[in-house]
TrEMBL record:
Annotated TM spans: none
Cellular component GO terms held in the UniProt record: peroxisomal membrane
Source organism of this protein record: Pteruthius melanotis
Signal peptide: none
Protein name, UniProt field: PXMP4 protein
Length: 213
């Protein structure tokens, strides 16, 4: 027992010493990036999939749990692969050119995005749309900071909110098929299911009646 414990402590000391070596920092950062991508993807997707599955999907408990597990795994795997690819390409470019420049980040992320998120499926679609909305806000702020557009005299957010909600509800009412499926489900629950009821049970307690009467 004592010999096994000593061996384990020696192994841990060697691993910690390796982690402190600067020459391996880039490679180790790629590995930890993979780890963080996997963990973060699971943390983000699991609660979202749990709520969306039990709110909007039909099927047995087994089928629902399987769907949650598949969605969580896909999100976790894709983020892990992307971070691994991005940081690896970033390190390779920096090593080849002897320094890090802004274009390296753009190119590495473009390649990673193409390879990992290029498949048009529900998980990738949600992630890309999530990023797109934040990119538009960030680019707008950057354009003001750089002086490409003048600083607004008033907060433009109320106008943005009005246009976003006006557009999405118009699309939902007249071009529903163009919206992403989970958004369709959410808006159907809010704006269409609220038009239908038969008695107090499906007016206040349940969204829809579960019996055939």
């Amino acid at each position: 027992m004592a010999g096994g414990a000593d061996s384990l402590r020696a192994l841990l000391r060697a691993a910690n010493a390796l982690l402190q070596k600067r020459r391996y920092h880039a490679a180790l950062a790629v590995i930890k990036g993979f780890r963080n991508g996997a963990v973060y993807g699971a943390k983000i997707r699991a609660p979202h999939a749990l709520v969306m599955t039990f709110l909007f999907k039909s099927g047995s408990l087994r089928e629902k749990l399987k769907s949650i597990a598949q969605a969580t795994y896909a999100h976790s795997r894709n983020l892990a692969y992307f971070v691994f690819t991005y940081k690896g390409l970033l390190a390779a470019q920096s090593r080849l050119q002897g320094k890090k420049i802004p274009f390296h980040s753009f190119l590495a992320a473009c390649i990673g995005g193409w390879l990992v998120f290029g498949d048009n499926n529900p998980i990738n679609s949600q992630i890309v749309m999530y990023l797109l909305s934040r990119i538009l806000f960030a680019l707008s702020r950057l354009a003001v900071e750089k002086g490409y557009i003048p600083q607004p005299r008033q907060d433009p957010f109320p106008l943005v909110a009005a246009l976003v909600w006006g557009t999405v509800l118009w699309l939902f009412e007249y071009h529903k098929e163009t919206l992403q499926p989970s958004l369709q489900s959410s808006m159907t629950y809010l704006y269409e299911d609220s038009e239908v009821w038969h008695d107090l049970s499906d007016f206040l307690i349940y969204n829809k009646r579960t019996d055939s009467s």
